[in-house]
Amino acid sequence: MTDHESGIGRRIAYYRARKGLSQRDFAPLIKRSEAWVSQVERGVRPVKALDVLGRIAEVLDMPVAELAPNAPAARAEPTPAHTRALRLLLATDHALRAMVTEPAARPDLDQLAEQVDIVWICARQARYAELHTLLEVLLPQLETAAAVRDSSHADVLLAETCQVWAIALAELQQFDAAWAAAERAMRVAHRRADPVLMAACAFRRTIVFQRGQRLDLARQTAESARAALEGMLDQPASQALIVYGALTLQSAIIAARADDAERARELLDDARKAASAAGTDREEYRVEFGPAAVAVHEVAVAVELGDAGTAIRLAAEIDTRNLADFHRVRLLADTARAWAQRRRPDRALARLLDAEALAPEYLAGHRAVRSTTVDLLSMDPGTPGLDEFARRIGIDMPRVPSPAGRKNTARIALRAARGPRKP
């Protein structure tokens, strides 16, 4: 534990007490356990993630720069045009237009299905400008197809498209818009009275809530959908089993983020049983689940619980040759986080560079990747290639002060941690 990290703990303790909050009161406000707060304040455990620092600073009503003066900072960049455009699509009522406009020809569902495939590829590769262009044309066509043909297939395509739209908006930190797009998907699924499709929409809602740091809503959404599907799991080749398994993995991640290790492991056991029943990796309503998905999420859960050794060991046991690119990117990002927890910036950066080669645009907007990079810069900004990588994903390192300045910064930090002098 460095003097810098222990100083953060002392400052947290001082300002928490100054606000009249006990550790027990403070912990749920920052979505951490009381034990975690105690370890941080005693200097036993560092605050590893920039988003957690931001949450602490928000609760304590102070800027991050005062809480952690030497923390690297993400550049504030203007909202990209494609982000605004994806939001504005919500203002157009495509269903209304489809209801009152006579189509020139009956929609070709096979052709529309091919377009939906392309939309999902664009979203997974974070090609958001292209995604907007496609959605602008595809959404009205799908609404028309659903209105004219009264087709289950058309509704499924529409619901899947609204789901990917929601996830893209969530990745772009547009959480209110993401929620609205997710609700459009759920309305279509409800119209079809298809419980598995509704559960798939709930799965996307869960992801949206997690991206927005609303773990309480994410947990409730996932658990209620899992409970609804339990009575359908005995059916042969069950679609419900695949969506149930994927929801179970999300529930495990949520439990780990809440520091509930016992619950996270129970859920992973449940997911393994579901994967064994599925037999192989399958996809239903664009929701993927199977043995490979379980293996990737086991690594993610270990990282969230701070068990870096287990995460690294599990990641090394996974045969990545048959993994889809988005699963490989997630695995590499989580393994990088594990190596960062082990304070090995060289190995962490190597995984991030491998992930960048697969999906550079996705990586640049990935919150956990940015947080990991900030941690690596705090450990060793001189790691070869780290500064260039950080700048590519929009993170700048603050100017390093002179030795005299560092002493003065440390003196100010210590004085702040001790609190005001008694008269």
Quick recap:
The chain is mainly alpha-helical and 423 residues long. It is built from 23 helices and four strands. Helix 14 packs antiparallel against helix 15 and helix 19 (345-358) packs antiparallel against helix 21 (367-379).
**Are there runs of 5+ residues with pLDDT below 50, and where?**
399-423
Q: Report mean pLDDT, rounded to a whole number.
A: 84
Q: How large is the share of residues in beta strands?
A: under 5%
How many structural domains in the coordinates?
4
Shape: globular
Total count of helical runs of at least 4 residues: 23
Roughly how much helix do the residues carry, as a percent range? Answer: over 70%
Description:
By secondary structure, the chain is mainly α. It folds into four domains: 3-71 and 400-418, 434 Repressor (Amino-terminal Domain) (Orthogonal Bundle); 81-193, no CATH class; 202-305, no CATH class; 327-397, no CATH class. 71% of the residues lie in helices and 2% in strands. It is built from 23 helices and four strands. The chain has helices spanning 3-18, 23-29, 34-41, 50-59, 64-67, 81-88, 94-100, 109-124, 128-149, 152-171, 175-192, 195-211, 215-229, 239-257, 261-278, 291-304, 308-317, 325-341, 345-358, 360-364, 367-379, 386-392, 403-418; strands spanning 73-74, 282-284, 287-289, 395-396. Strands 1-4 form a two-stranded antiparallel sheet. A two-stranded antiparallel ribbon has the order 2-3. α12 packs antiparallel against α13. It is globular and about 70 Å long.
